[in-house]
Specification:
single chain; transmembrane; seven-stranded antiparallel β-sheet; about 35% helix; Alpha-D-Glucose-1,6-Bisphosphate, Chain A, domain 4; about 35% strand; 5 helices; alpha+beta; membrane
Length: about 180
């Protein structure tokens, strides 16, 4: 019994040390990105990333709730193109608005998360030609509050899985 309590005490102390370390050392600036090479010209790939409607045909975050409600507004593929989503607890609620467009090259949007937690982020799709193929980089930047810094390693893991899933789906669509 004393051994179990000793091990439990050590685990609690290690957890507390990790939390303090994460809060003090991890940066509040969070950048995450993934890339994929798609066997298609950038003009063809752009058809799948150049508007919020196109994005939502393969968006892995939206696919987490088959009953998600999405409302679009603004001119498709232009600055101001936006959508509002409301889904289950996993998907939450928020809105994404296109803030900059360089056709066939880059789309920047602002994300505003409402539920399950309030927050803002910036997302980018960058298309770079590589011979007759296209490199697509999907990036997201935001600021982490103190408690979110503690969750950073788990966020990296989950974001990696989700971005990879989405980019696989994009690749499949664009290579058809």
């Amino acid at each position: 019994m004393k051994t179990i309590l000793k091990i439990l005490g050590i685990l609690i102390v290690l957890a507390i040390l990790y939390v303090v370390f994460a809060m003090l050392v991890f940066s509040k600036d969070y950048h995450f990105e993934r890339s994929v090479i798609i066997n298609a010209p950038k003009e063809k790939v752009w058809q799948h990333v150049g508007s919020t409607k196109a994005f939502n045909t393969w968006n892995p975050f939206a696919k987490a709730d088959k009953n998600i409600m999405i409302t679009y507004s603004g001119a498709s593929g232009e600055v101001g193109d936006s959508y509002h989503w409301k889904g289950n607890d996993e998907v939450g609620e928020g809105e994404q608005t296109v803030t900059a467009v360089v056709p066939n090259e880059k789309l920047t949007s602002k994300l505003h998360f409402i539920k399950p937690f309030e927050g803002d982020a910036t997302a980018n799709f960058i298309l770079t030609p590589e011979g007759n193929k296209t490199k697509v980089t999907w990036a997201m930047d935001n600021e982490l509050n103190t408690m979110m810094k503690v969750m950073k390693p788990m966020m990296d893991n989950q974001m990696g899985k989700t971005f990879d899933q989405g980019l696989r789906e994009l690749k499949k669509l664009a290579e058809q």
